[in-house]
Design brief:
The chain is built from 13 helices and 14 strands. With 397 residues, the protein is an alpha/beta fold. It has two domains: 5-43 and 287-396, Aspartate Aminotransferase, domain 1 (Alpha-Beta Complex), CATH 3.90.1150; 46-282, Aspartate Aminotransferase, domain 2, CATH 3.40.640. The chain is globular and about 60 Å long.
């Protein structure tokens, strides 16, 4: 059998591989503390759930418009436009079966073979996978650990732009670091975008998962609305990861092509789930707010314990449900200089399962610190304390 050569360029979401290994370890009778996968063990709000059930009973189980249910598109255009201080209409919105389809459809729409695309590294591995799968050249840019947050290395970003650079991926409120752009960073990026005639995929999956302050978007800056495509998902805010519903939001010319891709790839997104999403956006927000309260408690518990461990330093991001602790000292203390050795040994000795820097892209030249990613969205506070207590004991012994 001869599989198409392009498949060799296709990557994967490596957190699922870590999850499989943790599951195998648990199947042998071991206790696992699952910090590896960014899923939520929280219930979808009851009013959202009931709206989905009602929609099924009302007969919304057939095809719907390729672009999505018009009412949802209208509500989403208003919601996203209001929160980002720009004006959108339903013509700027294409409903998707999750957040991921926006990534591939953006590249299919905007990237020609050989075009260079800047993407964040460390970052969500699907960016690099989809750029290369569709024939582009993936060009990474990095982050710098600051006093209070991780900052985009804007000098590196600027230096890596060439005449072949056509697109930029910006994951503000970022997976895996939890980083969010300052106003100055956004202004610098906007200047580069205009200067070099770039178009931007703004992955804003965690725009509403924040515990203080207010999220900002590149699209709000002058000249950016016409150059930015927003990735939106219902998975995080409403604990709907398994419902698979999201949206692509951007200039009408781009959205028209993406709707055509919808026709070719999945016909339409799930019909009745879109009515659940309408309830999520317009209905009672009590349980949605409780999701944030719960996640904030878990964040604080995790950060507080990590910062008591010798050789570990962890910033406290205001958004996402990820932490990116610096474990350089801890790895040195244990004598484990290799990421995989460290991860596997910690799992074996403590049951704590996490991803490392290697799961979010190849380390860039000059990196001399070591990081791991902890997702606290799927683990209870009592388990956080117990698991990290064992992790602390292992490192310090």
């Amino acid at each position: 059998m001869k599989i198409a050569k392009r498949v060799d360029r296709l990557g994967t979401e490596t957190a699922f591989a870590v999850s499989a290994k943790a599951a195998a370890f648990a199947a042998r009778g071991n206790k696992v503390y699952p910090f590896h996968l960014g899923d939520l063990n929280l219930k979808t709000p009851a009013n959202v759930l009931e709206a989905g059930i009602k929609a099924m009973r009302d007969g919304h189980t057939n095809y719907c418009p390729n672009a999505g249910v018009p009412r949802l598109r209208e509500i989403l255009a208003d919601d996203i436009g209001t929160s980002r201080a720009v004006q959108y209409s339903m013509e700027n919105v294409a409903i998707q079966p999750g957040g991921k389809p926006t990534i591939s459809k953006f590249f299919l729409t905007m990237m020609n073979p050989g075009d260079e695309v800047l993407y964040p590294n460390p970052g969500y591995p699907i960016y690099e996978s989809q750029i290369e799968f569709h024939g582009g050249k993936a060009v990474p840019y990095g982050y710098i650990e600051g006093k209070d947050k991780f900052d985009i290395d804007t000098d590196m970003l600027a230096d890596r732009i060439t005449p072949r650079t056509k697109l930029l991926v910006l994951n503000d409120l970022q997976n895996p670091t939890g980083a969010e752009c300052s106003s100055k960073e956004l202004e610098t990026i906007a200047e580069l975008v205009l200067k070099h005639d770039l178009y931007v995929l703004c992955d804003e999956a965690y725009f509403d998962i924040r515990y203080g302050g207010q999220s900002k978007s590149l699209v709000s800056l002058p000249g950016m609305r016409e150059r930015c495509v927003i990735l939106y998902t219902f998975s995080k805010k409403f604990a709907m990861t398994g419902w698979r519903l999201g949206a692509t939001v951007g200039p009408k010319e781009i959205i028209d092509v993406i709707i055509k891709l919808n026709v070719n790839e999945e016909s339409c997104s799930n019909h009745f789930v879109q009515y659940a999403a309408i309830e999520g956006l317009t209905g009672d927000q009590t349980e949605a707010k409780q999701i944030l309260t719960t996640l904030k408690e878990r964040r604080d518990t995790t950060v507080d314990i990590l910062n008591t461990i010798e050789g570990v330093h962890c910033l406290r991001p205001n958004a996402t449900f990820y932490l990116w602790p610096n474990v350089t000292g801890a790895m040195k203390k244990t004598g484990l200089a290799d990421y995989d050795d460290f991860r596997k040994t910690v799992l074996q000795e403590t049951g704590v399962s996490f991803c490392t820097r290697l799961h979010f892209g190849r380390p860039l030249e000059g990196e001399d610190n070591f990081y791991i990613r902890l997702a606290y969205s799927g683990i209870e506070p009592a388990e956080i304390k117990e698991g990290l207590g064992k992790f602390k004991e292992f490192i310090e012994s």
